[in-house]
Structure formats: structure tokens, C-alpha cells
Amino acid sequence: MLSVIRELFQQNVFSCTECRTSRNNTNFFNPYCEANPRHQSSRPQIDIFNRQNFFLDYISSRYNVKIMVIGEAPGLDGCGFSGIAFTSEYNAVSDLELPNYHRTFINFQREDSAEFLYDVFCDVADVLDVDLKSFCSQLYLTNASLCVPLNDRGTGVIGPSTIMKNNCKKFLKEQIEAIQPEYILTLGAKSFNAVVRIMDVAGSNNIRLKDIPSLCDCIERDLSYRAGTTLIIPELHPSSNTNLNEKSKRLYPELKSRIKRKLLGIFNE
Prior knowledge:
By secondary structure, the chain is of the alpha/beta class. The protein has one domain (2-267): 3-Layer(aba) Sandwich (Uracil-DNA Glycosylase, subunit E). It is 43% helix and 11% strand. It has helices spanning 2-11, 44-60, 79-82, 89-95, 112-128, 132-136, 162-179, 189-198, 201-204, 215-220, 246-251, 255-267, and strands at residues 27-29, 67-71, 139-143, 148-150, 183-187, 225-227, 230-235. A five-stranded mixed sheet has the order 3-2-5-7-6, with helices on both faces. A two-stranded antiparallel ribbon has the order 1-4. β6 (225-227) and β7 form a beta hairpin. α1 (2-11) packs antiparallel against α7 (162-179). The longest helix has 18 residues, at 162-179. The mean pLDDT is 93. InterPro entries: UDG_Type-4/5, Uracil-DNA_glycosylase-like, Uracil-DNA_glycosylase-like_sf. Pfam families: UDG (PF03167). Residues 64-247 form the Uracil-DNA glycosylase-like domain. Keywords: 4Fe-4S, DNA damage, DNA repair, Hydrolase, Iron, Iron-sulfur, Metal-binding. This is Uracil-DNA glycosylase.
């Protein structure tokens, strides 16, 4: 199944320019074929090649994937540097034990959302009495949009544009269909909304799309949705910068404990 994703990325994502040719006014970059504007180096093509290799090795290290974890879009310091969603260079090399493609020996690149999630993964692995690498091999991390959406100055990440979301929808659908996960953990409202539509959650549950509560309401009511054999579990994005309304601010402090509880519930079934 993961060979399908490898082929998808190699043949389509690694060279995708759809947003470049579709009048998308939002700044962005495809981390698999374009230079990272924050982490400029004298060898941008090698950096791009390294990100591709990090991702392909990541795919090869997934076994018996039980859960897809889907975010909104890559960041500059995480996937934009390592090529793996919610995974910094430090996580890729130190936690997942992937080859050190960037040949960094001190000061590995780190990213806040990645640190947040890998702290949770480490806690869950400890409770389950398995090593972190083995636990993570059962997770597949990706984003609903695969390019990094940037602000006007190109120095910070913003939400993906409608064009970006629409262009990437087919890539997310193909990844879900290839893995057919038992569970999907969505992180952020944009991720949840994308999965709800791709998986036809409304049709599967015989309800109207507009009757599906907002992300925060789902979390407050501890709601999840089944679509076929997959259970979709909505949660907040791990970056506090994306949780700015009053409800999400109130729910954010318990995010780590909620994700830990939900993951342990899955693996202790």
C-alpha cells in the first residue's frame, strides 16, 4: 500500500507546479522541489534532494500503519526542512533513526509542533512499553495541503489558500485510499474539514454536512465520526498560533493529555 504513496510523491508531488500555474496569489513553496526561503543554503538542489530522500525513507519505515495523522499544511522548520509532516530534522534523525541526509552534527533543526507531537508519542510509547521508533512506525503523518503557505514577506506560515486546498485534495484522497487506516486523527479545523469532505462523513452518517459541529464543538462533546471502516477523530492543531478563538484557547491547554488519551485508547483496544 505504501508503494502507491511512494509512486504518488515521486511522479506527482515532487514535481507539482499546479498552484504556480493556477493564479494563486498566495506565496508558498513546494518543499520537495523548491528552496526553503528561511533556510537558504549554497546548495538548494541538494537540500531538495535530501528532503525527498527523508520522505522516501520515512515511507519505507512505516509498518502496519494503524493511524493517519493529518495536519493542515507544512511549516518552514518542520516538513519544509525535513520533508516529513510534523517531523523536524531532529525527530527524523534522532527519534526515527533515518539517515542524516543534511549531514548536521550539532544544532539539529527543531520545530514546535513536531516537538509537541513527538513528546506525546514518546509518552504513549513509554506507557505501551515499546520503543519510540517502533511505535511511530504504526503512524503515518501527512498534511491536507502539501506546499508551505507563506505570508507576503515569505517569513512566516499562514493558512493554505482555497486553490492550494483544492489542488492537494486529490493527493490526500490517494494517500487515504492507499493506507485505508483504521483511524484518522485530524489536527486543525482545515484538516478536519478536508477529511470530512473526502471521506463523505455526512453521507456515511446519514446527516447533512452543515449539521456536523465545528471542530471545537466536536472536541467538547468528544465526538468522532465513522466513514466506512475508518474512525475520524478531530483535534486542535498543536501550534498555539492557529488556535486563536475563545473556544480553542480554552481547549488548547489539555491538548497533549487528550491526544495521549485517545492514542492509548486506540492501542489498548
